[in-house]
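Write out the 3D structure for:
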Amino acid sequence: MIFAGILAGGIGSRVENSKLPKQFLTIHGIPMVIITIKKFLKTNKIDKVIIGINSEYTKLLNKILIKYNIDLDRIIIVTGGKTRFETLINITKKAYENDNNSIVISHDCARPFVSEKIILENLESVTYDSATTTSIPVIDSIIVRNEKFESVNVPNREMILLDQGPQAFYFSKFLNLIDLLKKEEISNYMEVGKLYINNSLKVKIITGEKMNFKVTTQQDFDYSEFLIEKGIIKDEMYSYR
């Protein structure tokens, strides 16, 4: 089986004046969490979607899933951890309970405009002993600073990418690597790539897309609305109000 792991455990503190985590805020009338879930459900390679979320919002999520006619037979909800990486571990362990050796493709709920092309390329490229990640080239010069906020190095930007996600991996391999970590080492990680690199495993890079940006601030929500209104981002779901 192939599981999509949606990381939705955050509280969205960077969206001002919001009483709800940002994953429940709407883009063109649709909660962002629904947009992201639907992107994976419409991909026929995905068997189930596992959503990692703060337990305080489980009832609200269930209510929204029903309202938007999401196929609940393909949805699993798990409690998120204290960090993004702990939520990813919880998602992966739940996948393992359902099928002990297959693939998780993990993705931030706050990147709702991921394309089917990116999803499929991750799934086609992953192997048992390698993970995948999705990244785009930087277009600006990169500088490294010191503690005094002085520039101390300007790396070659051709060798630097901005990581987006999704990432794909075989969950039994991932959990084996987690078992090798000491409890205090868990906090050193945010995503799969660093874990694999630190264990001398390959992380294949899938070329990302500009539209796969992270919706973090109110400006990002406004920009998303603009892109949809202008027809730059197109999807039949946005006709729903």
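The two ends are 33 Å apart (CA to CA).
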